[in-house]
Amino acid sequence: MNYLTYLFLAITIISIYYAFKYWRQSKRYTRERFAFALLSYIGTSFFVIIALIGYRQVILDFILLTFGITISPTYQTLIILCLMIFLIASYYIGYLIFRDWNGKISVIQHERQEKQIADNPKYFLLDSWEFLKDYSREEKRTEEYIPKVIQKIGFVSELIWEKQAKELLCLDDSKLYFRDDDWHESHNCWIGEHTFTNNKVVLICKYDELVDKDLLPILAYVQKREPLDKDKIEVIVALKDGDIDKNRTISGYKVRFVSENTLLNKFADFNNNFANYFHFIKDTVTYRKFDDLGLTIEDMYVTSDYKFKDDERQPNIEKFIYEWLENKGSLQQLAVLGEYGHGKSTLSQMLTYKLLLRCKEDKNARIPILLELRGKSPRTLTPEHLLATWGDKYGIKSEVLKQLLIAGRLLIIFEGFDEMDLAMDKKLRLQNFISLWEGLYYKNAKLLFTGRPNFFFDTEEQEICLRENVSGENNYGQTIYLEFFSNEQIKSSLTKLANQVVKEEIIILIDKNPKFEKLISRPSILRMAATIWKKKLSKHKNQINSALVIDEFIKSTHERQTNKGGHILYEVERVYFMEAISV
User: Tens of pLDDT along the chain (583 residues)?
Assistant: First the structure.
């Protein structure tokens, strides 16, 4: 009995260790592991309780021999009673942790949640049993639940040319109207109407240009169905290939020949649809100045370096992105990750501006759509709603954006995915990415995601959401990481941010203090430091850290607002209310 008691005590201690481990690392383990470890603890400790009652002296001898402790007989009963209370209390606490588990969700737990089955004590035993059964099952049901759809996402089904041509022409002329049953398969044409002129409209869909004699049978078919005067029938030939928009008369019919590319160029016109968007981005980058510096984003911008995961530093992230955009044969999508202050938002804005300038020179260049995800819930929006939310701001129809996206004429920049709504719930995070991929992932699309890597709880989740390492496919996501500024980039940035005296003082301190150099290698911290160096930081040269820089920058901001005059609040009041808001 002595050896058996020692064995159960050992198992109890091991079970406690693993139950504690699974609880503390709940972001890595499902609750079935925790349930099994806790059940093992309960089973063995129950035997220990019996031993405490029936074999009290055995337990006390064990404690004495193991730890060299002498226990007075007066306290033996009290100690045993305390141990029993501790064990019973730990059972209850363990169940509460199980019931309110906030770690990884298993396949079994997900199924219960989908059926809205409330947890109760019996599932504690069932989950422990399921964990044991997993050793004999090929499909592990106690492993983490990952929506299969995000691993199987393919391209969004593209419209066949017959339907796409109809949508393009209706966008070009909103008075055109075709019903779903207006399609005539035998002659590859739609027969609809023009709601303004009341003329019949014949839309003939072809991939390349036709000779006149090929049109004659179609026109004869239309005349037989619609015995109208020829001037009451409008004929449009929509061509998938080529670059054409011309009118001709054939057998007395006025025929317009127009190609997809011509229509798309019309929709992408910067003097029409995208004029407001271009001027908004231009003002953001080149006109609006930071009060503390009197400089614009364009004035301060220095191109960052990048690297692939566990790889060497590479120069000029912009060059890499341009090469990725121009590689039409590649189906890879791109994610740019960076920590706080790395300049992700600045990169997105400058990249958008530079690409828009390209678009003004090259009408076939991809138009960058800077779509901020801050505070948004893509899982609750259809792709059309997401595009409409963006397009309404600039007077651009979501249908136009969709057609340009299908044709490979857009770059969608999803900026700030780490600030999406309800980001703390893993299931909702996955659903957000599913919506983005499923709704906008056309074959010719280019998608770029930016955000912080610590948005994801682990590497596995990052690979799933950004489609990294999708085996056997060419349509996967590629991730690159923004690098901290190098010494040369810091000096280049200081040339733009600070006067010569401040620049020299900061550079001298960089050479003396590697920790300070690492601190201001973040572009945002560098800007703060340069802004308040002369007034606030130069006297703290040997004690500077990120907290001091941010604190002094906030103080300086409060002072500047107060000194503008005409203020409603004094500086101390601003500080008080801003601290309250922060809390």
Answer: 456 666 766 777 777 777 777 777 766 777 777 777 777 777 777 776 666 666 556 556 656 666 566 666 666 667 667 777 877 787 778 777 777 777 777 777 777 766 766 666 667 677 777 777 776 666 666 776 665 545 555 555 566 888 889 999 999 898 999 998 899 988 889 999 999 999 999 999 888 877 778 888 888 898 888 888 888 999 999 998 888 889 988 888 889 999 998 998 888 887 778 889 999 999 999 998 876 677 888 888 889 999 998 788 999 999 999 999 988 777 788 999 998 888 899 999 999 999 999 988 888 889 999 998 888 888 888 777 888 889 888 888 888 898 888 888 899 999 988 888 766 777 778 888 888 887 777 778 889 999 998 888 778 788 888 887 655 455 578 899 999 988 888 888 888 777 788 788 788 888 777 877 887 888 888 887 777 777 767 666 667 766 777 777 777 666 666 665 555 667 777 777 777 877 8
Going by their DSSP bridges, the two strands 233-239 and 183-184 should be labelled as unpaired
What is the rounded distance in angstroms from the CA atom of residue 66 to the CA atom of residue 329? 70
To the nearest 10 degrees (0 to 180), the angle between helices 161-172 and 398-406 is: 140
Amino acid, res. 380 = T
Q: Hey, what's the torsion of the CAs at 533, 539, 544, 546, to 10 degrees?
A: -40
The Cα–Cα gap between 122 and 148 comes to 29
Q: Which helix (H) or strand (E) holds 302?
A: none
Do the bridges between strand 233-239 and strand 200-206 make them parallel or antiparallel, or are there none, so unpaired?
parallel
Cα distances (angstroms) measured from residue 251 to each of 54, 194, 212, 221, 232: 110, 21, 9, 13, 14
What DSSP letter does each residue of 435-450 carry, written as one string? Answer: HHHHHH--TT-EEEEE
What is the distance between the alpha carbons of residues 358 and 348, in angstroms, rounded to a whole number? 15
Cα dist. 129→88, 141, 306, 508 in Å? 22, 11, 48, 65
Computed over its alpha carbons, how large is the radius of gyration of the chain? 34
Residue 212 CA: distances (Å) to CA of 63, 248, 257: 103, 10, 12
DSSP assignment string, 100-162: T--SBPBHHHHHHHHTTPPP-HHHHHHHHHHHHHGGG-SS-TTSBP--HHHHS--PPPPPPHH
For residue 148, how many C-alpha atoms fall within 13 Å in the half-sphere facing its CB?
2
Residue 427: partners with Cβ closer than 8 Å, 6 or more residues away: 105
